[in-house]
Protein backbone atom coordinates (compact mmCIF):
# COMPACT_ATOMS: atom_id res chain seq x y z
CA UNK A 1 0.00 0.00 0.00
CA UNK A 2 3.00 2.27 0.48
CA UNK A 3 3.59 2.32 -3.29
CA UNK A 4 0.02 3.56 -3.76
CA UNK A 5 0.43 6.23 -1.06
CA UNK A 6 3.71 7.39 -2.60
CA UNK A 7 1.91 8.00 -5.90
CA UNK A 8 -1.29 9.33 -4.30
CA UNK A 9 -3.20 6.62 -6.16
CA UNK A 10 -6.41 4.95 -5.09
CA UNK A 11 -7.60 1.37 -5.45
CA UNK A 12 -10.88 -0.51 -5.76
CA UNK A 13 -11.85 -4.09 -6.44
CA UNK A 14 -14.58 -6.24 -7.94
CA UNK A 15 -14.87 -9.82 -6.75
CA UNK A 16 -16.76 -12.95 -7.53
CA UNK A 17 -14.92 -16.10 -6.43
CA UNK A 18 -13.12 -14.37 -3.55
CA UNK A 19 -16.43 -13.11 -2.11
CA UNK A 20 -15.02 -10.05 -0.34
CA UNK A 21 -11.77 -11.55 0.91
CA UNK A 22 -9.70 -9.33 -1.41
CA UNK A 23 -11.48 -6.18 -0.17
CA UNK A 24 -10.99 -7.32 3.42
CA UNK A 25 -7.27 -7.77 2.81
CA UNK A 26 -6.90 -4.42 1.03
CA UNK A 27 -8.80 -2.59 3.75
CA UNK A 28 -6.83 -4.07 6.64
CA UNK A 29 -3.54 -2.20 6.24
CA UNK A 30 -2.55 1.03 7.96
CA UNK A 31 -3.90 4.08 6.13
CA UNK A 32 -6.12 1.94 3.91
CA UNK A 33 -9.01 4.39 4.17
CA UNK A 34 -6.97 6.94 2.20
CA UNK A 35 -6.20 4.47 -0.58
CA UNK A 36 -8.90 1.82 -0.79
CA UNK A 37 -12.13 3.32 -2.12
CA UNK A 38 -14.25 0.18 -1.94
CA UNK A 39 -15.21 -3.07 -3.53
CA UNK A 40 -18.10 -4.89 -5.13
CA UNK A 41 -18.91 -8.54 -4.61
CA UNK A 42 -20.74 -9.50 -7.77
CA UNK A 43 -21.60 -13.18 -7.58
CA UNK A 44 -24.37 -13.34 -10.16
CA UNK A 45 -24.15 -12.50 -13.86
CA UNK A 46 -26.97 -9.95 -13.47
CA UNK A 47 -25.01 -8.10 -10.74
CA UNK A 48 -21.89 -8.11 -12.89
CA UNK A 49 -23.96 -6.65 -15.73
CA UNK A 50 -25.92 -4.05 -13.71
CA UNK A 51 -23.28 -2.85 -11.27
CA UNK A 52 -19.99 -3.38 -13.12
CA UNK A 53 -21.22 -2.83 -16.71
CA UNK A 54 -20.12 -6.27 -17.94
CA UNK A 55 -21.92 -6.68 -21.28
CA UNK A 56 -24.56 -9.43 -21.32
CA UNK A 57 -22.98 -10.84 -24.49
CA UNK A 58 -19.76 -11.58 -22.57
CA UNK A 59 -21.65 -13.38 -19.84
CA UNK A 60 -23.63 -15.44 -22.35
CA UNK A 61 -20.53 -16.94 -23.97
CA UNK A 62 -19.89 -20.66 -23.44
CA UNK A 63 -17.37 -20.02 -20.62
CA UNK A 64 -19.80 -17.68 -18.84
CA UNK A 65 -18.42 -15.27 -16.25
CA UNK A 66 -15.13 -17.13 -15.86
CA UNK A 67 -13.13 -15.49 -18.64
CA UNK A 68 -10.41 -12.99 -19.34
CA UNK A 69 -12.84 -10.50 -20.90
CA UNK A 70 -15.21 -10.59 -17.92
CA UNK A 71 -12.34 -10.09 -15.45
CA UNK A 72 -11.06 -7.10 -17.42
CA UNK A 73 -14.52 -5.53 -17.59
CA UNK A 74 -15.14 -6.16 -13.88
CA UNK A 75 -11.92 -4.28 -13.04
CA UNK A 76 -12.81 -1.44 -15.40
CA UNK A 77 -16.32 -1.30 -13.92
CA UNK A 78 -14.95 -1.06 -10.37
CA UNK A 79 -12.62 1.78 -11.38
CA UNK A 80 -15.43 3.62 -13.15
CA UNK A 81 -17.87 3.11 -10.28
CA UNK A 82 -15.51 4.35 -7.57
CA UNK A 83 -13.24 6.74 -9.46
CA UNK A 84 -10.19 4.70 -8.40
CA UNK A 85 -6.88 4.93 -10.20
CA UNK A 86 -6.38 1.16 -10.11
CA UNK A 87 -8.82 -1.70 -9.73
CA UNK A 88 -8.42 -5.42 -9.25
CA UNK A 89 -11.01 -8.04 -10.21
CA UNK A 90 -11.36 -11.75 -9.52
CA UNK A 91 -13.63 -14.25 -11.22
CA UNK A 92 -13.39 -18.00 -11.15
CA UNK A 93 -14.47 -21.28 -9.63
CA UNK A 94 -13.42 -21.84 -6.03
CA UNK A 95 -15.40 -25.05 -5.71
CA UNK A 96 -16.42 -27.43 -4.36
CA UNK A 97 -17.45 -28.42 -7.91
CA UNK A 98 -17.12 -27.04 -11.42
CA UNK A 99 -19.60 -24.40 -12.58
CA UNK A 100 -22.57 -24.82 -14.94
CA UNK A 101 -20.41 -23.88 -17.92
CA UNK A 102 -17.89 -26.61 -17.17
CA UNK A 103 -15.08 -24.41 -15.88
CA UNK A 104 -12.97 -26.58 -13.58
CA UNK A 105 -12.49 -25.97 -9.88
CA UNK A 106 -9.49 -23.73 -9.36
CA UNK A 107 -9.74 -21.82 -12.66
CA UNK A 108 -9.46 -18.11 -11.86
CA UNK A 109 -8.91 -14.90 -13.80
CA UNK A 110 -7.47 -11.84 -12.11
CA UNK A 111 -7.46 -8.48 -13.85
CA UNK A 112 -5.89 -5.14 -13.00
CA UNK A 113 -7.21 -1.97 -14.61
CA UNK A 114 -4.97 1.11 -14.60
CA UNK A 115 -6.95 4.29 -15.20
CA UNK A 116 -3.82 6.41 -14.71
CA UNK A 117 -2.48 5.25 -18.06
CA UNK A 118 -3.55 7.24 -21.09
CA UNK A 119 -4.95 4.13 -22.76
CA UNK A 120 -6.32 2.72 -19.50
CA UNK A 121 -4.09 -0.30 -19.61
CA UNK A 122 -3.64 -3.10 -17.16
CA UNK A 123 -3.09 -6.81 -17.02
CA UNK A 124 -5.02 -10.04 -16.75
CA UNK A 125 -3.81 -13.47 -15.68
CA UNK A 126 -5.34 -16.94 -15.71
CA UNK A 127 -4.60 -19.41 -12.95
CA UNK A 128 -5.48 -23.07 -12.71
CA UNK A 129 -4.97 -23.83 -9.03
CA UNK A 130 -6.71 -27.20 -9.26
CA UNK A 131 -9.17 -28.84 -6.92
CA UNK A 132 -7.39 -27.85 -3.71
CA UNK A 133 -10.49 -26.82 -1.78
CA UNK A 134 -12.50 -23.58 -1.89
CA UNK A 135 -10.65 -21.91 0.99
CA UNK A 136 -7.25 -22.55 -0.56
CA UNK A 137 -8.41 -21.36 -4.01
CA UNK A 138 -9.63 -18.10 -2.44
CA UNK A 139 -6.40 -17.60 -0.48
CA UNK A 140 -4.22 -18.25 -3.53
CA UNK A 141 -6.37 -15.93 -5.63
CA UNK A 142 -6.02 -13.08 -3.13
CA UNK A 143 -2.25 -13.67 -2.94
CA UNK A 144 -1.97 -13.71 -6.74
CA UNK A 145 -3.99 -10.48 -7.01
CA UNK A 146 -1.68 -8.74 -4.53
CA UNK A 147 1.37 -9.98 -6.43
CA UNK A 148 -0.13 -8.70 -9.70
CA UNK A 149 -0.73 -5.30 -8.07
CA UNK A 150 2.78 -5.14 -6.60
CA UNK A 151 4.38 -6.05 -9.92
CA UNK A 152 2.36 -3.44 -11.75
CA UNK A 153 3.28 -0.75 -9.24
CA UNK A 154 6.96 -1.69 -9.36
CA UNK A 155 6.95 -1.13 -13.12
CA UNK A 156 5.31 2.32 -12.92
CA UNK A 157 6.96 5.72 -12.57
CA UNK A 158 6.26 7.69 -9.40
CA UNK A 159 4.97 10.89 -10.97
CA UNK A 160 1.29 11.73 -10.84
CA UNK A 161 -0.92 11.15 -13.86
CA UNK A 162 -3.13 13.67 -15.61
CA UNK A 163 -6.16 11.95 -14.09
CA UNK A 164 -4.85 12.68 -10.61
CA UNK A 165 -4.42 16.36 -11.33
CA UNK A 166 -8.08 16.70 -12.34
CA UNK A 167 -10.23 18.86 -10.06
CA UNK A 168 -12.84 16.94 -8.15
CA UNK A 169 -10.85 13.70 -8.04
CA UNK A 170 -12.02 11.59 -5.12
CA UNK A 171 -8.61 10.71 -3.69
CA UNK A 172 -8.41 11.06 0.04
CA UNK A 173 -12.10 10.49 0.63
CA UNK A 174 -13.07 7.82 3.00
CA UNK A 175 -12.78 7.29 6.63
CA UNK A 176 -12.90 3.56 6.92
CA UNK A 177 -16.46 3.54 8.19
Notes on the structure:
This protein is an alpha/beta fold and 177 residues long. 39% of the residues lie in helices and 19% in strands. It is built from 8 helices and 5 strands; from the N terminus they run H-E-H-H-E-H-H-H-E-E-E-H-H. A 5-stranded mixed beta sheet has the order 2-1-3-4-5, with helices on both faces. A hairpin with a 7-residue loop joins strand 4 and strand 5. The two termini are 19 Å apart. The C terminus is likely disordered.
Number of DSSP strand runs? 5
Q: How do the SSEs run, as a string of H and E?
A: HEHHEHHHEEEHH
Gyration radius, rounded: 16 Å
- State the separation between the terminal residues, measured CA to CA: 19 Å
* Largest sheet data: 5 strands, mixed
Overall helicity:
25-40%
Could you give the order of strands across the largest sheet? 2-1-3-4-5
| Tally of separate helices | 8
Question: What proportion strand?
Answer: 15-25%
Basic shape: globular
Q: SS-based structural class?
A: alpha/beta
Low-confidence stretches: 160-177
Average residue-wise pLDDT: 89
